[in-house]
Amino acid sequence: MIAESRSVRPRKGRGAMGRRPMIAGNWKMYKTPAEAVVLAQHIDNLILDDPRSVESVDIVVCPPFVDLKSVATVLEFDHAPMMLAAQNVFWEAEGAYTGEIAPGMLADLGCSYCIVGHSERRQYFGETDATVNKKVHALVAAGVTPIMCCGESLETRDAGGTEAFVREQVRAGLEGLTADQAAEVVVAYEPIWAIGTGRIPTPEAANDVCRSIRATLGAAFGQPAAIRVRILYGGSAKPENLGLFMPEPDIDGALIGGAALDAESFVSMVKTAAGFAE
Ligand code: PGA
After folding, report:
1. Beta strands in the chain (DSSP E)
2. Which domain holds residue 105?
3. pTM beyond cutoff 0.85
4. pLDDT band for position 14 (50/70/90)?
5. Considering the domain boundaries, does residue 90 fall inside one?
6. Is-contact 53 90, C-beta < 8 A?
7. If you count DSSP H runs as helices and E runs as strands, how many of each does the chain have, helices first?
8. Catalytic residues, which ones?
9. Residue 2 lies in a domain
10. Residues enclosing ligand 1, CB less than 6 A?
11. Is residue 11 part of a domain?
């Protein structure tokens, strides 16, 4: 019912703004290197059947660190039309930081993007807006584009504080970038209560937050930069609901967890996004 009424809604100019849809699969802590190769090849095989998706959507896979090399090899060997991303990074260029990974190492492996500030890292690993900001700067300096996550808890939402909270995360996370650098960043709006829960906000509510993120970007970096930034929705995004979010004018794609671990569901979401490319 909702899907019907929204699918006939006129699209409002994402293409006119030059924003290419992006579908990014966050594999989280799933898939061994061997399993990651199988998944990447399966996605690639399915995508190659659909040139329209390849032409019109930025397709990104974000495997665990230990899988990056094997997936990079698949993408290179198969000339796969997908880009590689890491899920985290440390901000120093090198040094005695046992267990950490530097931005330049990701660049060297062929990572185009890196997720930063995912709510799971904020919750379990002490990530703050300040450390997110350091990572953003380090990635930009290394030529890897940050996919910076933001999103409110259920308590914040119930208290009516969503927009103020998310705006501050975005402001603080991107502080100190130039307008040109900020324009390249991808922001993922992921309400924490929607991640892995099967619950989703209404597309209008999600777009309201994304519009507010764009306004924050405009205030910080100017309007020309703000209209270039891609903002993804994340949180229980699935083949059944992506078509509800994509028509929204400030939503340019999705960061997908669970539904990205199945090649068919991931590729069907890529195809959905292609339907909204202009
Ligand atoms: P989900 O995860 O799609 O499984 O809700 C999204 C994310 O955490 O990026």
Report:
1. 22-26, 58-62, 83-86, 111-116, 145-150, 186-189, 230-234, 253-256
2. 20-274
3. yes
4. low
5. yes
6. no
7. 14, 8
8. 118, 190
9. no
10. 26, 190, 195-196, 234-237, 255-259
11. no
